[in-house]
């Protein structure tokens, strides 16, 4: 009950309107907190004393930060937010996306069967990529938003830079490489719920169309666009990026952020992008790839690759060289390319590394994921979350392990960057 007491003490120190807001959040999350407390009690009892001391030190630190005159912070503490209406209940209500809540477990089982860990194979995944990727994003979008925010991607980081700051800079870098101009018409291929879309549109004063084949993500993205007041300049189109519903030469620029890795065929996807891009204009992307150090005959490497594939809805993970080859085959001139993970001062996988702790990305840390795991268990137990939610959490945890190992061994990168140009001669 330490969290309750700290929350009440904070409320006393808040302004009346802040106190009322925090009281509402606390009341909404209290039942969830109780469920988690009960379901985790046996685990909590088994935690060693140094860890308990750390948790209490963390709460004391947050309290000191909240009460310090040097910080103008009126947000509910992260530990409270994890159990708040804005956190736990939104996570519960969004689990399963557009899938009927009674069908979530069945969808999880069907999704798992596509992957090597459950007897699936690459051919089947590629043949059924639309169904597999749609099931994946229906199942995981709420988890992603809960943990990452609105932008579902990694970023290279500088020392002293927060995860959120690095993500924004990564998006701005892409916009600068495309040399975007105010008023241009831009396409975001595989836009998720539109976090990068909104950031790039505001940064560059452009109109951005998000292409996505998942109905739940589009409905969520439209809601967030309205909240951000960019719904007049940014929109979404539901379609497969292998068969885009746009006329030839429609866009002034195209980008993709960790999205075209879901395509069953890189050449086919890049060829469609080439078709809708205006001659003389540019396509930039961050691709998920296996790096040159990957050995397909190494069993440990195979295991890491399989964990990433099941945890991230991928039919296959291509080598960087294969992406480059597919770009050229599609007709693009490659301006420059680089694996941005190389020589990054802070490893891109650090937020998922169990040895790492950060207040600014608390939910991604080992402690944050432990809390989330047991919160989902409690939500499913009291039927606020659909049956099968725990299974989703499990394969996402498996993905995190694969991503960290892939990053440490330098056999995987989520940020193989390239800038490519459609020749002017393509208009002839």
TrEMBL record:
A Gene Ontology molecular function term of the record: sterol 24-C-methyltransferase activity
Which GO biological process categories is it annotated with?
methylation; sterol biosynthetic process
Q: Which organism is it from?
A: Cucurbita argyrosperma subsp. sororia
Q: What are the UniProt keywords, alphabetically?
A: Lipid biosynthesis, Lipid metabolism, Methyltransferase, S-adenosyl-L-methionine, Steroid biosynthesis, Steroid metabolism, Sterol biosynthesis, Sterol metabolism, Transferase
- Has the keyword Transferase been applied to this entry? yes
Q: Which Pfam families match?
A: Methyltransf_11, Sterol_MT_C
Could you state one GO cellular component term attached to this entry?
endoplasmic reticulum
The chain positions of domain SAM-dependent methyltransferase Erg6/SMT-type read 136-423
> What is this protein's name?
Methyltransferase
Instruction: Quote the pathway field.
Output: Steroid biosynthesis; sterol biosynthesis
Family designation: Belongs to the class I-like SAM-binding methyltransferase superfamily. Erg6/SMT family.
Taxonomically, the superkingdom here is Eukaryota
